[in-house]
């Protein structure tokens, strides 16, 4: 697992001049690839001015939600979200996040989240759903069964992630998994939409329970103070209730009716 971000990384993200290299397509909001300084590390820059209005989230709040997701990730110590800050950039204030370069696995092994022909689920992967492919062929959505991805799934429940697509999971060479694109998290209504349903109904591990308990404890102290600078009070209250509910159940949630449980498109 990669080390947690240190002071040098934070300082560079906050203070280095952003040099925009180009726009990342086809993101729904303006998303730019930039460098910290002319030849420094690459990063993702999402200005508030480039956010498209959404019907269910207050306009101009996505950057704060991206940063709030990193605040929770940092509090957990699970390194789910790459180092992230809020700062000024070439086209205004926005979210800046260190770039993480994913690696591709062997051609004969499914990706971390993948669509494969219908049949026997490969060892080490979990079945999510069955579907039809472009030629109407039967396929199934699967994801790997690993501790880093489980932690990401727990993180998504806590933050109420409404958009965990397969492409928002980055596979690192060392086996770690990063999650990106958290602009539509922390809604006060339960809106979990994710491709990571393979553990639905399974009991949380001791480490996962400890993590949720730590977040809940923080939501009665310093973590609440940090999040209330970024989110509405009722959204922070809802995060605490989700932690309490998750601990009472002691297991991963299962998809509920009344709201789509899979983001569209899923990749």
Strand count, sense and barrel status of the largest sheet are: 5 strands, antiparallel
Describe the strand arrangement of the main beta sheet, using strand numbers: 1-2-3-5-4
From the alpha carbons, calculate the radius of gyration and give it in angstroms: 18 Å
> What would you call the shape?
globular
Q: What is the count of helical runs?
A: 6
Q: What's the N-to-C terminus distance?
A: 25 Å
H and E string = HEEEHEEEEEHEEHHH
Number of strands: 10
- The share of residues in helices is 25-40%
**What are the segments in which pLDDT stays under 50 over at least 5 consecutive residues?**
1-9
- Overall domain count: 1
- Strand content is 15-25%
Mean pLDDT across every amino acid position: 92
């Amino acid at each position: 697992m990669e080390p947690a971000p240190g002071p040098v990384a934070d300082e560079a993200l906050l203070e280095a001049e952003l040099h925009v290299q180009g726009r990342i397509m086809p993101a729904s909001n303006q998303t730019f690839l930039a460098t910290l300084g002319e030849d420094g590390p690459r990063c993702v820059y999402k200005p508030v001015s480039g956010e498209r209005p959404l019907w269910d989230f207050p306009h101009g709040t996505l950057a704060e939600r991206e940063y709030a997701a990193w605040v929770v990730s940092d509090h957990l110590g699970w390194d789910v979200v790459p180092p992230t800050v809020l700062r000024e950039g070439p086209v205004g204030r926005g979210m800046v996040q260190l770039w993480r370069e994913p690696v591709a696995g062997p051609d004969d092994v499914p990706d971390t989240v993948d669509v494969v022909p219908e049949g026997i689920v490969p060892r080490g992967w979990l079945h999510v759903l069955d579907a039809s492919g472009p030629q109407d062929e039967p396929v199934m959505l699967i994801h790997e069964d690993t501790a880093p991805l489980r932690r990401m799934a727990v993180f998504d429940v806590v933050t109420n992630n409404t958009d965990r697509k397969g492409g928002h999971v980055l596979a690192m060479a060392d086996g770690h998994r990063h999650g990106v694109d958290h602009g539509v998290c922390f809604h006060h209504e339960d809106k979990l939409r994710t491709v990571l349903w393979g553990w639905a109904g399974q009991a949380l591990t001791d480490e996962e329970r400890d993590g949720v308990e730590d977040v809940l404890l923080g939501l009665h102290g310093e973590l609440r103070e940090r999040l209330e600078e970024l989110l509405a009070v009722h959204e922070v209250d809802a995060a605490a209730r989700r932690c309490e509910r998750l601990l009472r159940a002691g297991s991963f949630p299962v998809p509920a009716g009344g709201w789509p449980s899979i983001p569209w498109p899923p990749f």
